[in-house]
Amino acid sequence: MDIDFSSQIELSASLLKRSKYAVAFTGAGISTASGIPDFRSPGKGLWEENDPFEVASLTAFIDHPEKFFNWIKPLFLQARSAKPNPAHIYLARLENKGIIKSIITQNIDGLHQESGAKRVIELHGSARTATCPNCHSTYDIDHLFELFNRDSNLPTCSKCGHIIKPDVVLFEEMLPEKAWHSAHQEMQRADLILVIGSSLEVYPASTLPNIAIRKGAKLIINTLSKTPMDLYADVLLPMDVTKSIPEIFHMIDS
Ligand SMILES: [Zn+2]
């Protein structure tokens, strides 16, 4: 039987309405309904068959590019064909309305942008683009897709021939500095954080909401699993995000 979360939805809507600078923080849980597996959570889905450090690390990319691309190729094809679900779409509407000021995401699928969100900060990079580590030429996902479809060949830079690297943050890599800095700034400004589909466990991204909370920001957590921040939440909404976000939107919009 479905639990009735209507009072939590109502409270979330009213907190969002009253907020001056609300920021969304999203994780894998917002994209699972779009068929995207969890990219960086050890012990889950993708990692059950592979040791992440063997396939998804910078060392793997450099030392065993075939192995690396065999592992990452299905992920890219999925990210390319996946479509935004109602949680992405209504979150983008909240952003377009000015209720949400920015979306900080741990996801690499680009689905926030595809659903029309303007201000998206990607902490773990993007599966939609790639860069040549040698000459810094950039490639979009359609080009990567073409290269992936040429059986067995590794995707190489058309300018210098070096193997190109997807713009996702691999193990042993730092988070992109610009994104990390912007995310920090957003957290300093925020008076409300709406966590959607993140268990707030993947370090260091998970430490971000705490910056805002320490400064007195309100916290809404819309994640099915428990999180280490539950204790500090003003609203806990362990509910399907494809239902909760549209409901919150309609309540604010009515
Ligand atoms: Zn190049």
What's the helix and strand layout?
Layout: H1 6-18, E1 22-26, H2 52-55, H3 58-63, H4 65-81, H5 86-96, E2 100-105, H6 111-114, E3 120-122, E4 125-131, E5 138-140, H7 141-149, E6 165-168, H8 177-189, E7 192-196, H9 208-214, E8 218-222, E9 235-236, H10 241-253
Parallel strand pairs: 1-2, 1-7, 2-3, 7-8, 8-9
Antiparallel strand pairs: 4-5, 4-6
Helix pairs in contact: 1-10, 4-7, 5-10, 8-9
Structure description:
The protein is α/β, with parallel strands linked by helices and 254 residues long. 38% of the residues lie in helices and 16% in strands. It has 10 helices and 9 strands. The chain has a 6-stranded parallel beta sheet with strand order 3-2-1-7-8-9, with helices on both faces. A 3-stranded antiparallel beta sheet has the order 5-4-6. Helix 6 links the parallel strand 2 and strand 3. It is elongated. 44% of the residues are buried. The mean pLDDT is 89. The site of zinc ion has 8 residues, from loops.
Short description:
This protein has 254 residues and is α/β, with parallel strands linked by helices.
